[in-house]
């Protein structure tokens, strides 16, 4: 159990880094898609 805890605590920063980078890379895409969806809704309705 202690070994597993050490392993996960050692891997956690890498996972957090890659997850944060993934979110940071997906943020513009989310903003663009959200803006496009909002524009489409306001344009069509």
Brief overview:
With 45 residues, the protein is mainly α. It has one helix at residues 2-44.
**How many distinct helices?**
1
* Gyration radius, rounded: 19 Å
Helix-strand topology string: H
Structural class: mainly alpha
Number of strands: 0
- Low-confidence parts lasting 5 or more residues at pLDDT below 50? none
Helix fraction?
over 70%
Categorize the overall geometry: rod-shaped
Average pLDDT figure: 84
As a percent range, the share of strand residues is under 5%
Characterise this structure.
By secondary structure, the protein is mostly helical. The protein has one domain. 96% of the residues lie in helices and 0% in strands. The relative contact order is 0.08.
How would the blueprint of this fold be written?
Layout: H1 2-44
Keywords:
1 helix; 45 residues; mainly alpha
């Amino acid at each position: 159990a202690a070994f597993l805890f050490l392993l996960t605590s050692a891997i956690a920063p890498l996972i957090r880094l890659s997850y944060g980078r993934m979110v940071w890379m997906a943020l513009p895409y989310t903003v663009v898609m959200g803006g496009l969806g909002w524009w489409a809704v306001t344009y069509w309705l």
